[in-house]
Amino acid sequence: MSAKTADEAGKLSVRRILPPVVTGQEIVLLAVIAALWVLLGLFTPAFLTLNSIGPLLVDVAPVALIGVGMTFVIITAGIDVSVAGMTMVSAVVTAQLLVALDIPLALAVLVALASGGILGAFNGVLVAYGRVHPIIITFATWNIFLFIGYRVFGSSTVNGIPNTLDVFGRGDAGTTLGVPHSFLITILAVIAAWWFLRYTKAGRNLYAIGGNREAARLAGISVQRRLIWVYVITGLGVGLAACITIATGTSTLDQSVGQGRELEVIAAVVIGGTSIMGGRGSVVGTLLGALLVQSVRSGVTQLGWPSQLAYLFVGIFIIIAVGTDLLRERARRLS
């Protein structure tokens, strides 16, 4: 094979691995979100005001930040159901230090990132070197993390949390020109992750691992090291999300922190077009998925409907997304 032919084959292989710059599902999601916002604006005019959109974007941020790491994980054909337990540990450790030592902002963020990253690394090592499906491993670690979190809480709430992390919150300290800082950080994280997945060899390797782990290993990809890092990245996202959770709450942190977060994150990733079978996914889609999920929840609340309807609508979106993915996978195999 000539050098030119090999180069063309390599470019073709990359095109097969990478999704388009803008996927059809992302366009559909944008259209659905736009239509939903228009309808909500018609029925509840207050929805399209800054006082409503601002808090909505703050609610999107923690889901999307963890979703970036979860997208990496699911692209590699894994999953992490322990993020709720990780959020609990990271939030309570950070909150306890804020109360006990009144640590500054930078150190508080570093503590949250470190705690999340360490827990993520623990997951990653078990997934990379174990021979058990990630859902089993992370379900086990979820229980371990909950135990740790409850022990740190000490059977009581954390009270008197200072406003050190208000820069991530909903108030004036947490916004610039009406745009929440937490959402700006999320946008930067999504841009960085999109660039990493698309334009770096390490990022493209994640798609290869999810497509066929054994083939990726035989091609010289360090599969185990890559798997550890995707779970670490998820943990770092959890750390940032914990900071936002503390900032948007009251001066009290209770033991329900992080509850149900894994369901919101996985829903956002799947609705965003990442294949649950691995090998395909987009962090931009995840951001849009998180925006759609939170818009539905906000809309149901503002319309005065029973809150349970939000679960119904999100469940329908997940079924549609998974069904579309299965049909796409079937068509690809038949072609």
What can you tell me about this protein's structure?
It is built from 13 helices and two strands; from the N terminus they run ααααααββααααααα. The protein is mainly alpha-helical. The protein has helices at residues 3-17, 24-43, 50-75, 83-101, 105-129, 134-153, 181-199, 201-211, 213-218, 223-248, 261-271, 283-302, 308-334; strands at 175-176, 179-180. It has one domain (22-334): ABC transporter involved in vitamin B12 uptake, BtuC, CATH 1.10.3470. A hairpin with a 2-residue loop joins strand 1 and strand 2. Helices cover 73% and strands 1% of the residues.
List keywords for this structure.
single chain, 1% strand, two-stranded antiparallel sheet, ABC transporter involved in vitamin B12 uptake, BtuC, 335 residues
How big is the Rg?
20 Å
Strand order of the largest sheet: 1-2
Task: Please identify the structural class as seen in this structure.
Answer: mainly alpha
Supply the CATH class: Mainly Alpha
At CATH level 3, the topology is ABC transporter involved in vitamin B12 uptake, BtuC
Helix content: over 70%
- Return the domain count: 1
SSE sequence, one letter per element: HHHHHHEEHHHHHHH
The appropriate CATH architecture is Orthogonal Bundle
Mean pLDDT: 91
* Strand percent estimate: under 5%
Largest sheet: 2 strands, antiparallel
Uncertain ranges: 1-15
Shape by Cα distribution: globular
User: How far apart, in Å, are the first and last alpha carbons?
Assistant: 26 Å
Helix count, DSSP H or I runs of 4 or more residues: 13
Total beta-strand segments: 2
Lay out the secondary structure.
Layout: H1 3-17, H2 24-43, H3 50-75, H4 83-101, H5 105-129, H6 134-153, E1 175-176, E2 179-180, H7 181-199, H8 201-211, H9 213-218, H10 223-248, H11 261-271, H12 283-302, H13 308-334
Antiparallel strand pairs: 1-2
